[in-house]
C-alpha cells in the first residue's frame, strides 16, 4: 500500500460574524492508503460530513493542508482543483434527496463528467455512463431513460454510486450511504462497494453511525470528537480496546443498543 491522502491540522469554522463563529473542526489529521477502507465515526454534529465535504471540494477549510496522490490541494482553485475533484467523489445519505427529480438516469450519471469537464467527447461520455450503470448492476437499457421516482430506494442509491464511479475516482467519501436502507439493501450496498474496491482499488472514507457495519468492511476506524481525531486504529482494536474516554462511552452505549436489538457487535 502507498499513501493516497494526508490531511493535516484541518480547521473549519462556520458562522459569519465573530459572535456566531464556531470551530467545528479544530485540528483534524489523518491519512489513507491507496485502496484502503477507513471508517469515520463520532457523535451527531461532530463534523464528519464537514470533513467529507471539504475533501470532495464542496467546502473549503479555514486552515490545514490536504495532500492527495502526491499533490498539495491546499489553495488550488478553478481548473487546477478540478483535476483532483474528479478523483475524490462523494455519495450521500439520502438517495431521495441527492438526485434531481427532473433528470433522467442517463443525464444524472453523465452530469459529473460535464461538471468536471473531464470527458469532452459525447460518444465516450455516453459509453462511460453505460459502463457506470453496468458496474452497479443496473441494466442501462432498462434504467437509462427513467426518472429517479421510477426507482426503488436501493436502486437510487446505486445511481449515487454510478455518479461517483463515472469519474473513475481514487477515493469515494461515503456519507452514511446505508442509513436510509433496510438491512438487506444495506448489505447489498456494502457488497457492491467491496466489489468496486477490489476491482478498481478505490479507497473509501466511510462515515457512519453503524459500528457493527464497519466490522469486516473497514480496516481502520477514526473517531472524531470535539474537532479532533481522538482515537484511531484497526477496526477491531478500536471497538474492543478503545482508548479515549469518548470512544469508550460511545462503544459501550452502542453495544448496549445493539444488545437490545439482538445484533451483538
Ligand atoms: N453550512 C453550515 N453552516 C453553519 N453550520 C453548519 C453548516 N454545516 C454544518 N454546520 C454545523 O457543523 C456541525 C457539524 O456538522 P456535520 O454535518 O459535519 O456533522 P456530522 O458529524 O456529519 O453530523 P451527523 O452525524 O448528524 O450527520 C453541526 O453543528 C452543524 O450544525
From TrEMBL:
InterPro entries: AAA+_ATPase, ABC_transp_ATP-bind, ABC_transporter-like_ATP-bd, ABC_transporter-like_CS, P-loop_NTPase. GO terms for biological process: transmembrane transport. CDD domains: ABC_NikE_OppD_transporters. Keywords: ATP-binding, Nucleotide-binding, Transport. GO terms for molecular function: ATP binding; ATP hydrolysis activity. The keyword Protease does not apply. Pfam families: ABC_tran (PF00005). SMART domains: AAA. Residues 5-251 form the ABC transporter domain. PANTHER family: TRANSPORT ATP-BINDING PROTEIN (PTHR43776). This is ABC transporter ATP-binding protein. It comes from Planococcus glaciei.
Amino acid at each position: 500500500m502507498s499513501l493516497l491522502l494526508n490531511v493535516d491540522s484541518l480547521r473549519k469554522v462556520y458562522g459569519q460574524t465573530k459572535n456566531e463563529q464556531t470551530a467545528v473542526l479544530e485540528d483534524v489529521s489523518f491519512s489513507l492508503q491507496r485502496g484502503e477502507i477507513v471508517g469515520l465515526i463520532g457523535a451527531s454534529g461532530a463534523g464528519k460530513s464537514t470533513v467529507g465535504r471539504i475533501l470532495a471540494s464542496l467546502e473549503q477549510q479555514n486552515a490545514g493542508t490536504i495532500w492527495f496522490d502526491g499533490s498539495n490541494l491546499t489553495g488550488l482553485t478553478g481548473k487546477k482543483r478540478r483535476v483532483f475533484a474528479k478523483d475524490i467523489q462523494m455519495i450521500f445519505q439520502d438517495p431521495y434527496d441527492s438526485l434531481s427529480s427532473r433528470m433522467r438516469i442517463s443525464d444524472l450519471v453523465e452530469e459529473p463528467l460535464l461538471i468536471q469537464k473531464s470527458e469532452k467527447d459525447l460518444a465516450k461520455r455516453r459509453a462511460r455512463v453505460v459502463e457506470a450503470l453496468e458496474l452497479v448492476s443496473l441494466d442501462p437499457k432498462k434504467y437509462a431513460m427513467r426518472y429517479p421516482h421510477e426507482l426503488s430506494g436501493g436502486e437510487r442509491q446505486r445511481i449515487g454510486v454510478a455518479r461517483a464511479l463515472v469519474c473513475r475516482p481514487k477515493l469515494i467519501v461515503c456519507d452514511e450511504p446505508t442509513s436510509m436502507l433496510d438491512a438487506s439493501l444495506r448489505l447489498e450496498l456494502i457488497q457492491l462497494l467491496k466489489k468496486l474496491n477490489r476491482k478498481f482499488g478505490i479507497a473509501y472514507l466511510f462515515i457512519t453511525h453503524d459500528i457493527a457495519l464497519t466490522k469486516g468492511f473497514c480496516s481502520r476506524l477514526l473517531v472524531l470528537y470535539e474537532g479532533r481525531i481522538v482515537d484511531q486504529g484497526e477496526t477491531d482494536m478500536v471497538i474492543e480496546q478503545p482508548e479515549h474516554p469518548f470512544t469508550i462511552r460511545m462503544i459501550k452505549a452502542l453495544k448496549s443498543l445493539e444488545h437490545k436489538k439482538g445484533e451483538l457487535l
